[in-house]
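Example record

One chain of 243 residues, shown exactly as stored in the release files.
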Amino acid sequence: MEKDFTPGKPQKILVVDDEQDVVELVSYHLKNAGFQVRTVTDPNSSFEMARSFLPHLVILDIMMPELNGTQICRIFRADPVMKSVPIIFLTAKGEEADRTNGFEAGCDDYVCKPFSMRELVLRVKSILRRTGEHQVEEVKSLHVGEIILDLERHQASVGGRRIELTLTEFKLLELLMQRLGRVLTREILLVHVWNYQAEIETRTVDTFIRRLRLKLGSEGERIETLRGVGYRMAENNSHPRAT
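Predicted C-alpha cells for this chain:
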C-alpha cells in the first residue's frame, strides 16, 4: 500500500508504549505539532496497527511485556512494508550497551526517559526531514512458480486455477511468499499471522501449513519443513518437504 503525500496533509506517527500516561503525553504534543497520531498500548497489536496505518515514523518503547520493543523493531525491519520506516526508541534503558543493541536492532534514533517533549518532537521532524517523505512501494501481487497472490483482490490461484483460502491461510501464504527462501520459525508466524494471540499454540501453525499445502496441490511442495525450526517457501518445488 502507498502512503498519501498530498501537500498539506499531516504525516503519520505510530506510538507504541504500554504506559498509558506516556502514550497520552507523546500523542498530545505530536498532534499539537501537526502530526496525525495513532497509539498502541498492547505490543502484540503493534504490527497489525502498523500495517493498516502505514506510519511515516514509529516511536517505540523497549521495556514492554510479552513482546519488547527490540523484538518489534526486528519484526518491522524484516517486513517488506515496514522495513524502511524510521523508528525512534523511547526508553528508560540508557546505558551504552542498550543503545548499541537498539541501533543493531534497526532503530534510527534513541531517546531516554525522562525526556523533553520539545526534544522528541524536534528529533521526529529531523528524521522525517532527513529521510524525506518516505514512501512504501505498492505491491499488488506476489508470484512464486505457478502461485499468484492478488493482494488487491485478495485472490489466490495456482496454474491459472482459482483456489479458495481463508483469511488466515491467505495471510500465511502471503508471508511465506514475501520471505521466499527464508526460514520462518513458528513464533515468527504466530506474531505476523495470528498477532501472537495467547490462546494460539504453535501446533496450530502446523495444522494450517498442512491445509495450505493441500490447497496448493503440487505447488504445496514448495513449503518446506525444517524440523525443530519452522518453515520456508522454496524458489523451486523439487525439494522434499522435510529437511
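Notes: The chain has two domains: 12-131, 141-233.
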